[in-house]
Amino acid sequence: MKQLFPLLLLATVASPTVHAQTSLSAVAVPAAKGPGRLSGRVVDAATQKPVEYATVALLPATGATPLLGGTCDADGKFELRDLPVGAFRLQISFVGYGSRLENVTITAEPQALGTLALTASAQNLGGVTVTGERPVVETKPDRLVYNADQDASNTGGTVADILRKTPLVNLDGEGNVQLRGTSNVRILINNKPSALLAGNLAEALKQIPADQVKAIEVITSPSAKYDAEGSGGVINIVLKKSSLQGTSGSVGASGGNRNQSLNGSLNAKRGVFGVNTKLSGFRNLYPFRSSTERTSFLPDGTTGRLTERTTSRNQGQGGYGQVELTYDPSPLHSFTISGNGNLYANDAPQELFNQYQGQPALDTLYTRDINRQDQNRSFDLNAGYTRTFGDKQPRREWSVLAQHTNNRNREQYRLDQYGSPEVRRGPLEYQEASLNLARNLETTFQTDYTQPFGEKNTLEVGAKHIRRQVSSDYVLDTLLTGQQSGFVRSALRSNQFDYDQNVLAAYGTYNFSLKKYAFSLGTRLERTGIAGEFQNEAGRFQNNYLNVLPNLNATRTLRKDGETLRLSYSRRIQRPHIYYLNPYVNQVTPNSVNFGNPELRPELAQLLELTYGTFGEKFSLNASGFMRRVGNSIERVSIYNQERARNETTYGNLATNTNYGLNLYGSWKPVTGWDLSSNISGDYTNLRSRQLNRVSRRASAYMNLNSSVKLGKTYVAQGYGGFWTGGVELQTRYSGGVYYGLSLKKTLLKEKADLTLGANNFLAPGREFRSTTTTPDFVNQGIFYSYQRNARLSFNYRFGKLEGGQRQRKSIRNDDSKGGSGGGQQGG
After folding, report:
1. Which of 346, 695, 407, 727 minimizes the C-alpha distance to 579?
2. Which of 35, 118, 465, 805 is in the most buried spot, having the most CB atoms within 10 Å?
3. Spatial CA neighbour of 745 closest among 753, 735, 737
């Protein structure tokens, strides 16, 4: 396998960096078996966190040829059995750390070596660099980790730019996130939901500077400890922070034609007290143009034809801040309290041309000037306590966590419509003004407990309560010039929608090992209570449901140096986000309106996944196949309203969605200083709807390639590129696209500063994305042109002095809601 892999990698041009493992540098020589046994735990010298999958080798007293060896588990633990009696040396190594040699004398009695610390090879406790160099992508037993801070091309960008390069993740032309072919994905920040992401997700992802991101974690099969995540999985954005003794920080600035930003951080810890802060400000510009050609099939056998063209200069500005306070009175107790908030304002002036022909009474020809302004304000408050139980029970832990989030989203627009008898601006004939004030309050309480049994078995139990209160107060006023003296409230398009949701959950997971097998058996029980009402209507709806959600994982270790095979099954529930529920009618484009469906039911999904992983000193490989089935999938549906000559789009539990996929990830280091990484994904989607008597199928593919080369001691050149082939919805097929970028980073000021020049998608001003929607009533051809050419220059400076002493902390994860895509009116 090790000899064939580089040839396979070159043949497929597929080589993502997926693991930080290191295999033995020489072939182990079989040693005579004996009664001896060695065990221990490997940790990072600065952070005291376990070094997952570090390599452990038994060497003779003289010489460098290993007699035998293995790797640590996810807790940094190792055990070598059947060892001969005598004097030997134990070598411990891992990528990014200096090797450690321990003299050991093996006897007939088992020996516990205790905690063995490795020092990061790039660590400088007197300066600011505190970790060794990590690979860009790592594979862990339950997740894929993209170490964004190791990719120089991310400097000066946003989280949206990072996600486009994350394995298994794709962003479409409008910035909507997809994971392995589905947009049903929950995005967290530091393992917690954030009010920042509760509104327009595509816009929110452009608000977080890439310079503040440490890593992106992709979890395709979450355990029962997670909320009942839906069919896609979890994407966790890990922000940079430090809990080391001392003071450190950074400042950065970036300028370019698409975005500009300033950001800084300050971290300090003195004794048992610590503080971490972040502050950033930004401005971005994402202009676009779009066009629609729709042919409607009228009841009398004739056709109606709509032509619309829109141009927009979409620009936004805002800021983000965070403060975290920590108190560690002893090694067994840890308290944390934190808060973060953001403010975002978006202006999107638009020009619209509209022409409809086919129904004389409804034919139109006009232009519109539209002034759209959105403002989002949000904050999160978090508090937590974690209790550990020392070296005698290192895996026993109890935590209590609480979180409150508040999101306030103000969306408004005003339009002026001009008659255009000759496709030129005519007299002002109609005006419209709309305001939607949406709020989303969410309060969470959570407790988790882990009890070890023996050296390898653990029981995890926990409980959680989430209370969500959502409201959308929307009004619309109209003015017909020459017929009205002032604006008049539209009763049909003004209302207040209130929505409450309560989730009570409990879970239990038992993890145990049998020789080369490791098992995780878990179940989550969730009860959901929903109530909603409209202020201007007597109707009120309620919906309560109870779900049992099992989760099973079985892992087989094929070789001691890290070759594994894992089979997992999970059943998930996916509650619709407010974006899908909010009935507010977005009618800025008169012939195409969008609104939510407050009576949506949750999705129920089943996922089966088989994963194979292996690694060597210069390569790693991870391959997986999956099958996902959603029985009552929430799908977008478009219906043509004959009376108003318009296309109405909403959502419903309309289909059975079955998805099959294969994913291949690998990495290769051809020579010292050159890293290649890539991933290839292919999936087949089968959507079947009895309600619409419709079947939609499509095979899709996705691929990316990343390369990094060190040029001397102070330069790093990086390049990336990829493509996706598009996808399918129940009524719509949409095109894919390509992306690419180059960057050059120069290290300055004794490795305390970086200057990075980057360019993305520079061969053309922008890219065109096409979609076709086909229904019995009409065929719609859409074109969206996004301006993507981007160049930027970024500077980052790090300062301070760190002295070690960091501990891991628990955090809340709310990952149970089906999130909304970008664009459109949302309720919080």
Report:
1. 407
2. 118
3. 753
Give Dmax over CA atoms of the chain in angstroms.
102
DSSP assignment letter at 7: H
Structure tokens at 235: 């994407």
Chain-centroid distance of CA 789 in Å reads 24
Quick one: which H or E segment has residue 578?
Answer: helix 578-581
What are the tens digits of pLDDT across the range 28-68? 444 557 788 888 888 877 667 788 777 888 888 776 667 77
Highest mean pLDDT among 94-103, 159-168, 501-510: 501-510
What is the full DSSP assignment across 604-665?
Answer: EEEEEEEEEEEE-SSEEEEEEEEEEEEEEEEEEEEEEETTTTEEEEEEEEEEEEEEEEEEEE
Model confidence band, residue 814 (pLDDT cutoffs 50, 70, 90): low
* C-alpha distance across the termini of the chain, in Å: 51
Which residue type, as a one-letter code, is found at position 402?
Answer: A
pLDDT at 32: 59
CA distance 149 to 481: 56
Residue with tokens 């400000």: 281
C-alpha 616, offset from chain centre: 28
Share of the chain above pLDDT 70, in %: 82
Burial class (CB in 10 A: 0-12, 13-18, 19+), 697: exposed
Strands 315-330 and 364-389: unpaired
Which of 761, 759, 758, 767 lies closest to 726 in space, CA to CA? 767
Q: Are 320 and 283 in contact (CB under 8 A)?
A: no
Q: What single-letter amino acid sits at 78?
A: F
Residue labelled with tokens 């829109």: 310
The phi and psi torsions of 587 (rounded to 5 degrees) equal -125, 35
Tokens coding 541: 């709806």
Q: Are 654 and 635 in contact (CB under 8 A)?
A: yes
Dihedral sign for Cα atoms in the order 177, 697, 645, 691: negative
Return phi, psi of residue 419, to 5°: -65, 140
pLDDT digits (tens, 9 = 90+) for 241-278: 665 667 888 899 999 998 898 989 898 888 889 898 98
- 127 CB contacts (<8 Å, ≥6 apart)? 751, 752, 801, 802
The CA–CA distances, whole Å, from 450 to 26, 369, 509 equal: 39, 59, 9
The answer to whether 799 and 128 are in contact (CB under 8 A) is: yes
What is the rounded distance in angstroms from the CA atom of residue 713 to the CA atom of residue 676? Answer: 19
Quote the CA–CA distance of 243 and 329 in Å, as a whole number: 14
The Cα 369–Cα 417 span in angstroms is 7
DSSP assignments along 9-46, one per residue = HHHHT-----------SSPPPP----SEEEEEEEEETT
Distance CA(439)–CA(452), nearest Å, equals 43
Q: Using CA atoms, how far apart are residues 797 and 753, in angstroms rounded to an integer?
A: 4
User: Which residues share a beta bridge with 452?
Assistant: 458
Model pTM score: 0.73
From 482, 478, 489, select the one nearest 416 (Cα to Cα): 478
CA 173 to CA 736: how far, in whole Å? 8
Candidates 224, 188, 228; CA nearest to 604 is 228
Domains in the chain, ordered, with CATH?
A: 36-118 (2.60.40.10), 249-803 (2.40.170.20)
Burial class (CB in 10 A: 0-12, 13-18, 19+), 472: buried
